[in-house]
User: What shape does this take?
Amino acid sequence: MITHLGPLVINRRTGDEPIRVDGEVVATLGDFWSWACSDLASNTMRGVLAEYLVATALGAAAGTRTEWDTVDIRTAEQWRVEVKSAAYLQSWAQSRPSDISFSIAPATGWDAQTGSTSMDVLRRSDVYVFCLLHHQDKQTLAPLDLGQWTFYVLSTRVLDDRCPHQKTITLSSLQQLHPVQTDFSGLSKAVAACADGQRQCAEGPPATLAPGAAWEPVRSPSPCDTTRERSGPRL
Assistant: This one.
């Protein structure tokens, strides 16, 4: 008789765990990971990798990834971080590099901490981190090389104020909102500047954040597109 249907306790695995049939080892979990997860340029795996990179930068990569939650990352500081990724290069053959856009759609949400669903359509994070795999040469594309990534960090409050109902945003429109643009080494500081508490970035941080520098609010016309974004594969 089933008496408990609470959440599973997911322990972090090493990859050495055997896959068995009748006691005989036929493969390992690492073999499965290699088979299933080697294409880091695919939309799905690139997105998961981006979440891991941001979580690592924020010291929030212990344990395991939560597949379903209202936000992608929760930090020790209680920051709620939403991670989006895009890339110019895809796994498939391309006639040209992909146009860059990110999903920013408000949505209903299921909270993994409370096990409850909210039907309110809104953005539930404190901060968005837009992760762009900016490299444009397929022969040398290496998603594990952090020098091929650029990160744009923006308070969710800016999106709510300036783009309240918009579902996607192009890179050029995002840049007009004055996100903090950074490499991996500056990502933690950039998130702190925007997350400490929505609390400071209501007008949007500057385009870059130099070491030791404080942000200054920047006011500009809303760049949010009023026309429909280009269709295409979700990035």
Summary: The radius of gyration is 19 Å. The chain is about 20% helix and 25% strand. Residues 3 and 119 are 29 Å apart (CA to CA). The first strand starts at residue 18 and ends at 21.
